[in-house]
Amino acid sequence: MTVTVENNVASVPPVPPEATMVTLKIYRFNPENPDAQGFESFRVPALPSDRLLSLLLYVKGYLDGTLTFRRSCAHGICGSDAMRINGVNRLACKLLMKDLLPKDLSKEITITIEPIKGLPVEKDLVVDMEPFFDAFRAVKPFLITSGNEPSREYIQSQADRARFDDTTKCILCACCTTSCPVFWTEGSYYGPAAIVNAHRFIFDSRDEGTIERLDILNDADGVWRCRTTFNCTDACPRGIQVTQAIQEVKRALMFSR
């Protein structure tokens, strides 16, 4: 198929007869014109098998080439395309339209899309992730050992590995952290993702940095800020029991001294 491109967008292809027209209500912000921020609506064809990311790519490719958002692998692994979809943090590449379209396809549907909360918006759906990664780095998310460099792999039992298996699944998408009301209001709070990644090493039998990490998470910006709202667990696209992990770190702090 040959397409022509004008004004940063290609000519619109024919709409498939089985497609449903939906309205995407997308938050727009341009740092060069901050007073013009607000929502802009686009009519887009959608198939039940489409991902929401596919609809955003349609807007960018055919309707408005200036629309800005992050995406990379498009398969729920890299975590790049986290955004608020109808008020809930989700990965656009994992959300299928069959889960959003009404049973009666003749009904009008509007999907509201916003940037994740609690981080500075750079443009449209793109936020500055540096505060999030600063917190991640602060908890020392790497194996800490002493002595000579090992000459072979560290041996670990299946039971020891299972102890922290759930928290190894984090893809650093920030869905959990930016769904947290405490993080929205207390920007210095490390947030669920940082605590999850600390948990992954705190309970690793091969690691020797547990006390150091617990000290980090015991300060005013650490685990005690958590109010157990379960927003983080609900938002996690990987199904990690985030709230449970935070509670386990709290118990480690209480009983390790």
UniProtKB/TrEMBL annotation:
<dbReference type="InterPro" id="IPR050573">
    <property type="entry name" value="SDH/FRD_Iron-Sulfur"/>
</dbReference>
<dbReference type="InterPro" id="IPR009051">
    <property type="entry name" value="Helical_ferredxn"/>
</dbReference>
<dbReference type="Pfam" id="PF13183">
    <property type="entry name" value="Fer4_8"/>
</dbReference>
<keyword id="KW-0560">Oxidoreductase</keyword>
<keyword id="KW-0411">Iron-sulfur</keyword>
<dbReference type="InterPro" id="IPR017896">
    <property type="entry name" value="4Fe4S_Fe-S-bd"/>
</dbReference>
<dbReference type="GO" id="GO:0008177">
    <property type="term" value="F:succinate dehydrogenase (quinone) activity"/>
</dbReference>
<keyword id="KW-0003">3Fe-4S</keyword>
<dbReference type="InterPro" id="IPR036010">
    <property type="entry name" value="2Fe-2S_ferredoxin-like_sf"/>
</dbReference>
<dbReference type="Pfam" id="PF13085">
    <property type="entry name" value="Fer2_3"/>
</dbReference>
<keyword id="KW-0408">Iron</keyword>
<dbReference type="InterPro" id="IPR025192">
    <property type="entry name" value="Succ_DH/fum_Rdtase_N"/>
</dbReference>
<dbReference type="InterPro" id="IPR012675">
    <property type="entry name" value="Beta-grasp_dom_sf"/>
</dbReference>
<protein>
    <recommendedName>
        <fullName>succinate dehydrogenase</fullName>
        <ecNumber>1.3.5.1</ecNumber>
    </recommendedName>
</protein>
<dbReference type="InterPro" id="IPR004489">
    <property type="entry name" value="Succ_DH/fum_Rdtase_Fe-S"/>
</dbReference>
<feature type="domain" description="4Fe-4S ferredoxin-type">
    <location>
        <begin position="160"/>
        <end position="190"/>
    </location>
</feature>
<keyword id="KW-0479">Metal-binding</keyword>
<keyword id="KW-0004">4Fe-4S</keyword>
<dbReference type="InterPro" id="IPR017900">
    <property type="entry name" value="4Fe4S_Fe_S_CS"/>
</dbReference>
<keyword id="KW-0816">Tricarboxylic acid cycle</keyword>
<comment type="similarity">
    <text>Belongs to the succinate dehydrogenase/fumarate reductase iron-sulfur protein family.</text>
</comment>
<keyword id="KW-0001">2Fe-2S</keyword>
